[in-house]
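Re: the request from the purification team.
They wanted to know what the chain is likely to look like in 3D before they choose a buffer screen. I agreed to run a prediction and write the result into the notebook, where they can find it.
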Amino acid sequence: MSFWIIKIMSTTVGETGADFLAVNAGWGQGVTRTVMAVLLAAALFHQLRTRRYTPWIYWLTVVLVSVVGTQITDLLTDGLGVSLYLSTAVFAVGLAAIFFAWHRVERTLSIHDVVTRRRELFYWAAILCTFALGTAAGDLATEALGLGFTLGAVAFGVLIGATYAAWRFGGNAVLTFWIGYILTRPFGAALGDLLTQAKTYGGLGMGAMWTSALFLAVIVMLVAAAQFSMNASRTAQVAK
């Protein structure tokens, strides 16, 4: 359960954090994209060198992927004027192509089988594409299709609930995992916009800074708990 809580919060931070740095902090889109891309490259390099799951490295990489994925979609939409319909379709096709290549080469898409460098590269390529796709799909639903932030968050939340129910009733674990993983991004984006946007635009007016700080604090606490638990478990195994 903590995995999905952190995942949803990291997607929200990706939305609110990118907005805060680019707008509120005055970095601008160009500087924000450059700095976040460099940080992501460094975190991903460290992650790929780590031989086993380490919570703080993994989730730091996920948060940075979330920010960069948001920036990619924003660049296409706001910077290059690409339609959300087109970007959503392109990212969906791109993700399908990654999954096809991954399964064709490795014969599995299960995260439990990500035990080689090549499989991990496929995994992170898919993760980045899910964040870019989720951002585009979320903006498409809440803005272009006019659902608004509240209804958009509810709609994606219902879809996540339906995916969870499908898994509980015997649905394919790998398929439902990836569907849920994809859906948490637009849900997090809609939730982030709902919390940060001014009330005149249909939001709650919390602002990007406070929302990002609150969600980051919860992420840090949950990841710290996971890291502590893992360290304690490893220490106990060594003691035996």
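For the purification team: The chain has a mean pLDDT of 88.
Please add any questions underneath this entry.
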